[in-house]
C-alpha cells in the first residue's frame, strides 16, 4: 500500500480563490530574492509565527524566511520543494515543522512523510543544517491525536540520525500544564498558538538556530 | 431543497482531538461568567482577532467577549447559540462575522445562513443591537470566491433591515489595493489577517461599537 504522505502533491484549488498557489509563488519568489540564512518550512504553525511579535524579535534578525502554508501536509511540502522553492539559495539552516495535518494517517505514514521532507531538503541543500521540530500538542486534554503525534515524534527522532547534519528538536514540553491540559491562553483553539504559546515552543528553535549559525560562520584568522 | 447553511449542526470530531467542543464549552462558560457588554461571534476571523494587539487595545476595554471558532460555518454558529451560549447574559451589542466557510454553497444559501444567525440572536437577545460584518476579501487577486462573497454581502445588506435594531457594516474596502490585490502584509495566506489587516477592517467595527455603547448608556439626569 503506498503512503500518501510521501507522494509530492499539489493542493487543488477546489473553491476558486487560488490561495495555495498564490502563497507558493510568493514564497518561491521570496526565496530567490532574499537569500535567507534560515528557512522555516511547514504548515500554519510556521505561517502564523510571522504574525506574532516573536517573529520580528527573534527570527527576522537571523535573516529567516517563512515558508509556511496553512493546511499543508508533508506531501504538499514535498511538492513545493520539488517545484524548486530552494533552487539557487544556500541557507545555513532549514527548520522543518510539518505533519499535524497528516494525522488522519497512521503514525508510521506521517513519520515517513516528515523524514521524506528531511531527505529531500538534504538532497537539494547538501550543506545546510536541518532541524526537525516535534509535533506540538493539540486538543485541550489528552486525546488520541496527541498519542498518535507522540508516536510520530518518537519514530522521527529515532530515524532522523540516518540523515547527515540533522537534529530532532522536542519543543512542546513547556506547553502542557501539570494536569496535561493545553491552556487556551497559549492556544485559543487548542491547535494554533498565541504569542505566549509560541514563546514556550519556538524560543527553543531560536536558541538552536543561534548555535547553528555561530558554527556556520567562517573563522577568520 | 433544504439549505444546509440554516440547519443548526454540531461539528463532528472526526480526528479525535475534541477541539471544537472544547472551544464551545469554554466559550459557553466564559459568557456566563464574564457578563460581556459586547459579544463577537463567528469563525477564525473572529477567533484570531484576540491574538493581535488590536484586541487588547480596542476591544477588551469595551468588555468584549470573543466567541469565534475557527472553521465555523453559519450552521455551527446556529447550533452553538441554540445550545445556549447566550443564555442569562445581556450584552449591549453582538457582532456577527460568519459565512466565508460556507462559500462552497450558492450565495443565496450563504446569505440565508447569515440572516438566520442574526434572526436567532434577535430571538434570544431581544434588546441587543446586532452588527453584521461584510465578508472580507480572500485570495490574492480577483477570483470567483470574492464575487460570490460580494453577492452574499449584497443580499445580507438588502434583507437585514427586516430584523429590528440591526446594521450591516461594510468593513473590507480598505483591504484591497488599487489593482484589486490583497497584500500578503495584510493577509499572509490571503484569508487570515495580520495586525495591519485587522486594523484596516476591524477598526470600523470598533468605531461602530463605541457609538452603540454610548447610545446604550442609561441617561442620568
TrEMBL record, chains A, B:
Pfam families membership: Lipase_GDSL_2 (PF13472)
Coiled-coil stretches noted in the UniProt entry, renumbered to this chain: none
Domain SGNH hydrolase-type esterase: 41-199
Xref: InterPro entries: SGNH_hydro (IPR013830), SGNH_hydro_sf (IPR036514)
Similarity comment: family membership: Belongs to the 'GDSL' lipolytic enzyme family. Platelet-activating factor acetylhydrolase IB beta/gamma subunits subfamily.
Name of the protein described by the UniProt record: SGNH hydrolase-type esterase domain-containing protein
